[in-house]
Amino acid sequence: MTAMIEVGAIRIPESELVERFVRSAGPGGQNVNKVATAVELRFDIASSPSLPEPVRERLLTRRDRRVTGDGVLVLSAQRFRTQDRNRQDARERLAHFIESGLHAPKKRVATKPTRGSKERRLAGKRERSTIKQGRTGRDWD
């Protein structure tokens, strides 16, 4: 049995994920220099057979710097000291990212400003105008 990442009704098999273990950046002394604990997880959104088409479209149209031009999501996890925990963290973040694409955004209903709000805005503009006009010194004699 292969492990799967489950997000709602979507199941992503392990075979669609590419993991690479690299050395972590930041503090940690000799341990950081010797052990490759950071995880770089890659998931090809554009050609994944597990994702329904509407979800794929929503994920690819998001303006996210983690998604490459080819439609590959690259997650880097190096928060924890162990490889296993970083791996788990990257998978949780992948699941969260996919979950964000499950919900279709509501269509915006165009509305007009009310008459009262227009009047309040114009009254505020008139007030500012009179304050500024009062600052100009015309009687220099």
Automatic annotation (TrEMBL):
PROSITE patterns: RF_PROK_I (PS00745). InterPro entries: Pep_chain_release_fac_I. Residues 116-141 have a biased composition (Basic and acidic residues). Coiled coil: none annotated. Its EC number is 3.1.1.29. One of its GO terms (molecular function) is peptidyl-tRNA hydrolase activity. Residues 100-141 are annotated as: Disordered. Pfam families: RF-1. It is an enzyme of class 3 (hydrolase). Residues 23-39 form the Prokaryotic-type class I peptide chain release factors domain. Keywords: Hydrolase. This is Alternative ribosome rescue aminoacyl-tRNA hydrolase ArfB. It comes from Novilysobacter erysipheiresistens. The lineage of its organism: Bacteria, Pseudomonadati, Pseudomonadota, Gammaproteobacteria, Lysobacterales.
